[in-house]
From TrEMBL:
<dbReference type="InterPro" id="IPR028978">
    <property type="entry name" value="Chorismate_lyase_/UTRA_dom_sf"/>
</dbReference>
<protein>
    <submittedName>
        <fullName>Transcriptional regulator, GntR family protein</fullName>
    </submittedName>
</protein>
<dbReference type="GO" id="GO:0003677">
    <property type="term" value="F:DNA binding"/>
</dbReference>
<feature type="domain" description="HTH gntR-type">
    <location>
        <begin position="12"/>
        <end position="80"/>
    </location>
</feature>
<dbReference type="Pfam" id="PF07702">
    <property type="entry name" value="UTRA"/>
</dbReference>
<dbReference type="InterPro" id="IPR036390">
    <property type="entry name" value="WH_DNA-bd_sf"/>
</dbReference>
<keyword id="KW-0238">DNA-binding</keyword>
<dbReference type="InterPro" id="IPR011663">
    <property type="entry name" value="UTRA"/>
</dbReference>
<dbReference type="InterPro" id="IPR050679">
    <property type="entry name" value="Bact_HTH_transcr_reg"/>
</dbReference>
<dbReference type="GO" id="GO:0045892">
    <property type="term" value="P:negative regulation of DNA-templated transcription"/>
</dbReference>
<dbReference type="Pfam" id="PF00392">
    <property type="entry name" value="GntR"/>
</dbReference>
<keyword id="KW-0805">Transcription regulation</keyword>
<dbReference type="GO" id="GO:0003700">
    <property type="term" value="F:DNA-binding transcription factor activity"/>
</dbReference>
<keyword id="KW-0804">Transcription</keyword>
<dbReference type="InterPro" id="IPR000524">
    <property type="entry name" value="Tscrpt_reg_HTH_GntR"/>
</dbReference>
<dbReference type="InterPro" id="IPR036388">
    <property type="entry name" value="WH-like_DNA-bd_sf"/>
</dbReference>
């Protein structure tokens, strides 16, 4: 048997035939990473498949993470974010880290204001009974590609006006003289699913890194508790180790 005799991409269910053609379009560079897919109707006309088949083919590529769907703006060819080598020895901000690499930073706000703290926040920030918490949760993008979902919680006297944060939290804290000087960071491997996967443009079931940062002022007071979910394929964390005797 020659390969052609058993490998026939045009065989199998119709939606898989179309899926293969679309997939080849992506691999062949016809559909560039990040570019929008033509509307379903148009794909159906060009390829002579039904709208139902087109929808099924697109859905199977969405499930594989090759195509991403954004609410209100349609389907796009997935773009793999640049891989970032991030050192684990300096207390820097996301904005600074990306700026150093010449990448542009944007944000999609998820939450920003005062909230009733969760027991975890009460514990991490040593809040008193009845205290509320300043919380800013956002999707962080570099050069337009989603990198992480970050949910930062701070005591209200440290961040009296959460709306002041339009881009960099640490720049705002710096201006108030409350930028943290030391932090404890924990990194755990997780599976990304549901709405988190959609926000990060990941296929459900992809690898992610859950990162928790607890930062303190020079006085030792905890001023920031941030829980983040980073794309597993976007980061390599690097630490230098020394022999200690
Ligand atoms: C980093 C920190 C996060 C901090 C943020 C401030 C990690 C895992 N997290 O993303 O804790 O709140 O920087 O960045 O490194 P910003 O000043 O750009 O808002």
């Amino acid at each position: 048997l020659k390969p052609h005799d058993w490998y026939r991409p045009e065989a199998g269910p119709r939606y898989l035939q179309l899926r293969n053609r679309l997939s080849e379009g992506v691999d062949g560079g016809l559909l560039a990473p990040g570019s929008p897919l033509p509307p379903e109707r148009e794909i159906a006309t060009i390829t002579e498949f039904s709208r139902v088949t087109v929808r099924k083919a697109i859905q199977s590529l969405v499930d594989e993470g090759r195509i991403v769907q954004r609410q209100g703006s349609g389907s796009f060819v997935a773009s793999t974010p640049a891989k970032v080598n991030q050192t684990l020895s300096r207390l820097t901000s996301f904005t600074e880290d990306m700026a150093r690499r010449g990448m542009s930073v944007t944000v999609q706000w998820l939450e920003r204001g005062f909230f009733m703290p969760t027991p975890e926040e009460v514990d991490a920030l040593s809040l008193k009974d009845g205290d509320s918490v300043a919380r800013i949760a956002r999707l962080r993008l570099a050069d337009g590609a989603p990198m992480a979902i970050e949910r930062a919680s701070l005591p209200t006297d440290i961040l009296p006006n959460p709306l002041e944060v339009t881009q960099s939290l640490y720049a705002v804290l710096d201006a108030h003289g409350t930028r943290p000087v030391v932090a404890l960071q924990k990194i755990t491997a997780v599976i990304v699913d549901g709405p988190d996967a959609a926000l990060l443009d990941l296929a459900p079931g992809s690898a992610g890194l859950r990162i928790e940062r607890t930062s303190s002022l020079a006085s030792g007071r905890v001023c920031e508790f941030t829980q983040s979910l980073y794309r597993g394929d976007a980061y390599t964390f690097v630490a230098q180790l020394r022999l200690q005797k």
